[in-house]
Fold each of these.
Amino acid sequence: MTEQFKMDAPATERRLDDMAQGLVGAPLDRPEGALKVTGTATYANEWQIEGMVHGVMVRAPGNSGRVVLSNREAVAKMPGVLSVIQDDRLLRNPAQGTANKAPVQGAQHATYLGQLIAIVVAESFEQARHAAQALKVTLENGEMVPVDPATAAVEPQEDQTLDQGNLDGAMSEAKHSVDVVYTTPSHSSSPMEPHASIASWEGEDLTLRASYQMLKYNRNELADSLRIHPDRVRIISPYVGGGFGSKLGLAPEAVAAAIAAKELGRPVSVALHRQQVYEATMRRSETRQRLRLAADSDGRLSGFGHDARVSNLPGETFAEPVLQASHFLYAGANRKMSLELARLHRLCAGSVRAPGEAVGVTVVENAMDELAHEVGIDPVELRLRNIPEKDPESVKDYSSRRFREALQSGAEIFGWAKRPGVKERRDGEWLIGYGMASAARINALMESQARVTLLPDGTARVETDMTDIGTGTYAILGQIAGDMLGLPRDKVDVILGDTNLPPAAGSGGSWGASSSGTSVYIACEAIRRQLADRLDVNEHDLMLKDARATYANQTKALTDVLQGDEIAKLGHVLPGETSDAVRQATFGAYFAEVAVHAASGETRVRRMHGSFAAGRILNAKTARSQCLGGMTFGIGMALTEELTFDPRDGHVVNHNLAEYHIPVNADVPQLTVELLEERDDWASPLQAKGIGELGICGAAAAITNAIYNATGVRVRNYPATLDKVI
Ligand code: MOS
């Protein structure tokens, strides 16, 4: 039986606050954690399937032209080689929409360097790799095509354009103003686990063991690419070794494995190697952002302008939504915003770690820092003065917003009051600076389903195709079901990552926990009602704890209530009117102390603090970990992270973890996180909002603002490598 719930009105019942078990919110460990660190969790490439053979993908050596495999026959005869496949379905555009889509082009025509255009399959991986390296790929009739954002054709994104009041007028009349241009480079998601798929067919039914974030969408994408019905496709993905957006949509290996397995009648395993992950999955677009801020003598904003340019491949619709938080973060009656998309023959741009805000809020926060110095007030105070009462464009209320508290509490915890003036503090050869920035990220609830079964032995099972990409889904769904059903955490079995299970929202856009958690909550409520019926009591008078039901001065073991029966309910949540009725977002503040070497310009982050508010915290440990991860990526974005393209052909130059510098332990100092609890009735019946990506949205600006405080140098082109600082 399905319990459907549409989020059409605020969900004001705070039942998770009163649950006797007290699991929700507790900092419980991830139940799959031990499996992962002991090597017993099976990742996509680790399945051993009877008769399995191996495929290695082959890349285009240039960014335009018809693909010709000139020695295909010879390669096909190499030892162990079973097939050399060049198929137009390899990279076809899936019609089913997700945030990310596979590149639109087929395999016959290259549109970017590194595009995966063929697959070589052999008995062993080594034979396949050897043959793939021997395959000669040439591009016929290729011309030079634009790879440089400065010279590419540009398309305005009309739906992102805003012109409210008169920004030019506000700028010219302003007592203080800032008009600055910043750039951020392309980023790569860089998950530890490369994209990998094992495809096996039984007749017309395909099973794909893979590593993806949003299985119900991935299933549709795969079916579309193969031109078969989604019912024929099963995807299994119980453990995901990081995705960071690059596994929201299908990567090329999934379709290639499926096509090869079908042709050969044998299971085919395809893993992208590290270079291919960098060259052929997703990049975050580079951005060029102009910020115009107009303020009065007190620093109160009269104008707010944000114009951005991003890029993508021709035909792709995704445009990094850089302006997303600019619409609701700060006041300013005169507002102007625009986004334009440059068409570049570089690999496909898509969602990477908080698309939009990660780079958009960062640059807004740099501009706000510049304004604070213009006005001559404390940067925290500047933010406090510009927190709008209502959404400055839609004039809607905010669903919940402990933004002010995050700024104030974060400043207190960090010791912001002791901040030095510009270039004022020194520690030996190191220049010391403090910086801060705000955090903001949109919140969304997505359709999601889960089945919860209370079993006759007094344990429960939660089943959904939701994924856990290292974020804590296994833990959180068990906590919610445990509390709702009065079961200790270890009496709840959470089964995820299989499209044979009810379709969930998937892990993306920070909506995973609140959406899938709500579907579990709804199913559990229905089970509670059925238990109450059996006991002839009002469900609200039923207390469930330690696998016992207590009501009207009686207590009974759940096993006795069930009497050999099981109760199974399907919870189904749909976003409804509350998503549009109010402005829903999460907020926070970062504070950083940096040391910049006076001679070399090397920057070390000495400490960093974040205070965040994201509704109800479902698990204090996993939520904190998400924030730590976000701030860590913020350090990378500020100081080192940059996907570098050869300006002649768009070749990704630093295509591995050795040269694409995301922070390692030695780069990350003590980070502290404060979580400010909220109850957001508009967001979900859990009163939870998404916290997954909040910790990166603006984090880099706290560091670059601290570099300014230390050195007096504004680095407006990210990352702030030492050559730019000194
Ligand atoms: Mo996220 S970039 O939606 O995985």
Note: The CA atoms of residues 366 and 701 lie 6 Å apart.
Amino acid sequence: MTTAAFSSLPLLPELLQSVESLGYQQMTAIQQQSLPSMLAGKDVLAKAKTGSGKTAAFALALLSKIDPVSYHTQALVLCPTRELAEQVSKEIRALARFMANIKLLTLCGGTPIGHQINSLEQAPHIVVGTTGRVLDHLQRNTLALNKVKILVLDEADRMLDMGFEEDIHQIVKKTPNTRQSLLFSATYPDAIQAMSQRILQTPVVIEVETEH
Ligand code: ADP
Ligand code: MG
């Protein structure tokens, strides 16, 4: 067994099974470097190029933290666009396929808000969404984030480019300070550094330059 084997990590058997069923034979570099810290509950700031497997990295960390019998939103993933939120939701669902009763809801614009409000009546364990629609639900009191244990900012550099910084801070303010925070980015401009200082607590910083 190499250190790149998913089975070298303290992962639930259900997650090892889904990783295998997806045909992921070994961890990519970013997964190998970030998962031990994430699974240990640390805040992580991870920079790695597109296509390096960042989604599965945070998805496995997030799914490890969900208590399926606690009917609250325990994980929040913010993405820059609807397309990305849908891709992330798909990957989390694929990795959760052997875990019983995990409810995930994708909250993006372009979908009637009434349907989302109905779906939120039973709080999903995981919310993946774009900042605008998540903020909209917070303002309507249709989404509660006070039980969030893990927050993920995916493609944080793109969210900053799109001008979502203040929206992100407004959303983060509604989550407990005791949460674990993970920030993923393909680039590392000064603005990411500044955002990380406001949101992350003594993060482990990981930078992967190689392909895999
Ligand atoms: P990023 O978010 O870093 O741009 P993605 O998370 O979208 O990259 O991953 C890119 C592709 O790699 C996806 O199709 C995903 O299913 C696949 N992938 C992720 N982890 C592994 C792995 N350990 N082994 C093989 N393929 C993987
Ligand atoms: Mg990605």
Note: The CA atoms of residues 63 and 177 lie 20 Å apart.
